[in-house]
Amino acid sequence: MVVRGEAGIGKTELLRYVADRSSGCRVIRAAGVQSEMELSYAGLHQLCAPLLTRLDDLPDPQRDALSTAFGLRSGDVPSRFLVSLAALSLLADTGARQPLVCLVDDGQWLDHASAQTLAFVARRLFSESILLLFAIRETGTDQTLAGLPDLELAGLSETDSRALLDSVVLGRLDERVRDRIVAETRGNPLALLELPRSLTAAELAGGFVRPDARPLSGQIEQGFIDRIEGLPAHTRLLLCAAAGEPTGDVPLLRRAAALLGIAVDVAATPAETSGLVTFGSRVRFRHPLARSAAYRAADADARRRVHRALADATDAQLDPDRRVWHLARAAAEPDETVAAELEQSADRARARGGVAAAAAFLDRAAELTPEPARRGARTLAAAQAKYQAGAFDAALQLAAAAELSPLDQRGTAMLTLLRGQILDTTRSSSAALPVLLDAGRRLEAVDAGLAHATYRDAFFAAINTRGLAGSDIVTVAGAVLAAPMPEVPTRRTRLLTGVATMATQGFSAGISLAQQAIDEFRTGEVSTEEVLGWIPLSCRIAADIWDAESWSALSDTLVRMARDSGTLSVLPLGLLLRIPNRAFAGQLDEAQSLTAELVAIGEATGAGFLATYGALFTEPWRGNEDGTRRAMDELNQNVFTRGQAKVQSDTQWAAAVLYNGLGRYGEAQVAAKRACENPDELGLSTKALSEYVEASAHLGQAADAADAVRTLRKMAEASGTDWGLGIAAYVRALVATGDEADGLYREAIERLDGTGMAMDLARSRLAYGEWLRRGGRRLDARAQLGAAYEMLTGFGANAFAERAGRELRATGATVRKRTIASHQALTAQEAQIAQLAGDGLTNPEIGARLFISQNTVDWHLRKVFTKLGIASRREIRAVLPTGAASSA
């Protein structure tokens, strides 16, 4: 739950109330600190510190990620999602041993990484004995905690406000003054306690309230400032030091105070007497506004003196980053030595996965850099880090600042690339495309490999808008073909050149080179970087050129590698390439499982449209008209996808598949015609050609499908694959007659049988059986229709299975009635967990796959056992349908 309210409304007291009444529970706490907002995972570390003795109980990848994020070990930059999953596992494991209460105060001041991680955890607490309670002041428009249960704290009632006010005002208070104070404080408890202390006796007696009205939190803070300014000078300086050192470390504060010439025991007494702060095992301010007031009450020179002392008092070996941060705050003018140290801190922050912290260090380093060219380079690095941290507006502002500095050729190219990346993320692929192209051209002279990677990304931006067709892709292709290439081509440059040639000279011209590169990616050794960077384009082109073997193998490699590395920037794309592959393979349950994984990622990242795209590849095959229509509508209306030509093609392909399965051929023909208006786009636009031919054949309009048949045949002959040639034979058979049709159907079935594309094989058997029945060959028809019915039923392709069943009954055969299996009573998540358990995955592995805790997995599995009538996970395979528990 998120407790929201203005400063002083009582959020902290409410959390204290919860802690005091958490009998039998373990209570852990964290509080956001404004000055630590740039230190990634500082808040999460504060919360989890008491639990770190259990780190070794976590799965190795999670343990390593969390340890690296907390700076407990060195290693590769940890995935934010692995860190989040590790935090979930750590808290869930603790909660399984003893009910756990997690209290997070001042959530608005949590560092970004901690806030995102704890929001991730909060959204995945299902069966755990955990209470996670945030207290947050409403500031800005940050939506990190959006969607969690809310409790909005209002002010006290008028009666209670009067009682509280009376308890702190000595002497008689004019009734009209009381009413005014109650009205102006709006029942804010802290304001009722603090504001009267800043008013003179005359003001209290006569109501002569100062007219300089400020927002309530400003009034409260000003009240604290007024009280601080009445304290002795050495006490004010001590309070400033305590406010500038956010950890509350008393020994550290004492060392800094000694350097400032302050006797802590003497200076602390007036501060404690005033009720502003307590010096115990830790320094605790009365309220966060008292802390900020203590800092603001000091002038700039005093603050710099305080930070210099804090830097000198901080151990450079144990806490180098906090030390250099204090040094940076102490600097009154450019200082290359401090700037260089900040740069080193940025490197350490990146190694812990703290890109937001790295950005803050680099930003300040740039400000302190005296030499203009180096300042520009650091500003650009800060902008790149801000982009990686998701702070796009700040990244653009820093990019503009970097542009004012004398950047070298590489810096200018990288700045252009950054602008393109930000546009691609925040606006649209079409807006980003010309900027990415410009960046690619600039990079050619300074970094050929990065230039090629930029052109690769530009290809994807173009494909996302119109597929492999249109002026955009031709422009990218022209840039690629004009770019310098190595004397000895690599598989990367072969892929780029092949795709560019396909886009400019036609499918047949570039397919050979693209196929060679794809084969090399499939059969050769590939690094993680290469898999995540280049396999997506290879995989997409493999599907476009009817290379079933490469599509299946590369999509499997991509998904596995993205999972293993925790790279959730790539995993959604990998799943979107894998899901249709599994659907065409007849593995609809597996495709559904992958779609559920995509849903989990969408919930974790806010990219819900990803899951919608997953449904577009499964619901039509199942004959689910409502689900298909819902996915189509959501994609056509989503701000990220609406208006894209590719989305139009994909959604209309889905409608064509749906209606062909339901036997509504007129509607299928209309949808397929829209989907394949430009088959040069490839992708599902090309796949829609076969849907158009099938619908037209059933409508007796074979002549209308002649162009589609010729196009598919030409593409299949260019590809030379059994999948492509099998589809070409299938569509030719649909519009042929006599012995020619019979031979083509047989050829299609023979070719498709070895491709792994079982859905196309089953549909070919269905169409052949329908043709045989119409020709009076009932026994031959039964064999084909029976095989098709069994396959389609096993796949869960319900509409096509019903079509096959009707045809089979028309031959006089008895059709086995399909029963609703017990597994269909499972929810989507239960079904997915059951399938993964059937595959042999352990509870922690399933939890990692679905971004839930292993306790939640166990909870779901108990419900699965009850619904399926089994007693253990070993029995799952026996009760799930064929293919449902197959490996992804």
Please describe the structure with a list of short key phrases separated by commas or semicolons:
single chain; 888 residues; mainly alpha; five-stranded parallel sheet; two-stranded antiparallel ribbon; 45 helices; 3% strand; elongated; disordered C terminus
Major sheet attributes: 5 strands, parallel
State the strand order across the main sheet: 2-3-4-1-5
Cα distance, first to last residue?
36 Å
What's the total helix number? Answer: 45
Task: Present the secondary structure layout.
Elements: E1 2-4, H1 11-20, E2 26-31, H2 42-48, H3 60-69, H4 80-97, E3 100-105, H5 112-122, E4 130-136, E5 150-152, H6 158-168, H7 175-185, H8 189-194, H9 201-206, H10 216-229, H11 233-244, H12 250-259, H13 264-273, E6 277-279, E7 283-285, H14 288-296, H15 300-313, H16 320-330, H17 336-351, H18 355-367, H19 372-388, H20 392-403, H21 409-426, H22 429-443, H23 448-466, H24 471-482, H25 491-505, H26 507-523, H27 528-544, H28 548-565, H29 571-584, H30 588-605, H31 609-616, H32 625-637, H33 645-662, H34 665-675, H35 684-698, H36 706-719, H37 722-735, H38 738-752, H39 758-774, H40 778-795, H41 798-810, H42 828-838, H43 843-850, H44 854-868, H45 876-879
Parallel strand pairs: 1-4, 1-5, 2-3, 3-4
Antiparallel strand pairs: 6-7
Helix pairs in contact: 2-5, 3-4, 4-5, 6-7, 10-14, 11-13, 11-14, 11-15, 12-15, 15-16, 16-17, 17-18, 18-19, 19-20, 19-21, 20-21, 21-22, 22-23, 23-24, 24-25, 25-26, 26-27, 26-36, 27-28, 27-29, 28-29, 29-30, 30-31, 30-42, 31-32, 32-33, 33-34, 33-35, 33-41, 34-35, 35-36, 35-37, 36-37, 37-38, 37-39, ...
